[in-house]
Design goal:
Blueprint: E1 4-8, E2 20-27, H1 36-43, H2 46-56, E3 68-74, E4 77-85, H3 99-116, E5 119-122, H4 134-144, E6 152-156
Parallel strand pairs: 1-6, 2-4, 2-5, 5-6
Antiparallel strand pairs: 3-4
């Protein structure tokens, strides 16, 4: 039975056995330099390099809100770069998070997780620099992943 579990820890060191997908939210500007991505880059260079290339070549690929790029970083670990944030600044148009894009992206992550027989691991996506609220994101995670049989672990840090 799939479940959503919230634990203390580091999402870049996913717990458990089997194939794991680390899902996180990226912006649509191609920026990679603050928040959870820094922890990813300290652990593996591939997700950042792939994301920057994906953005740079966006005229010829699917880069955009709701899209997901899957990057294999280890035999049993993949990173899902999910574009779920419009821009990077809070301002007159509100916060950068785009819940509809996160919803779409989570559907794609669910497809990949089922294909690989993987569990999904993440920080509280969209709730850091993107300015989202977990009360809005958690139901999306439950609908797109848990109800489709994909176990999810959400990692909280002490910092």
């Amino acid at each position: 039975m799939a479940q959503l579990e919230i634990v203390r820890g580091d999402a870049t060191s996913p717990q458990g056995k089997g194939v794991k997908i680390i899902a996180h939210v990226c912006n649509d500007l191609g920026g990679w330099g603050k928040g959870f991505v820094l922890a990813l880059s300290r652990r593996w260079p591939e997700p950042e390099a792939a994301f920057r290339r994906w953005h740079r070549e966006r005229a010829h690929n699917d880069f955009g809100l709701g899209a997901v790029q899957f990057v294999q970083v280890d035999r049993y670990v993949w990173v899902a770069n999910m574009v779920g944030q419009r821009g990077i600044r809070r301002g007159s148009k509100g916060v950068p998070v785009r819940y509809e894009a996160i919803d779409t992206a989570l559907g794609l992550v669910g497809d990949k997780a089922r294909e690989l027989g993987a569990s999904v691991h993440m920080p509280r996506i969209g709730c850091g620099l993107a300015g989202g609220r977990w009360e809005r994101v958690q139901p999306l995670v439950e609908e797109r992943l848990v109800r489709r049989g994909v176990s999810v672990t959400v990692y909280e840090t002490d910092g």
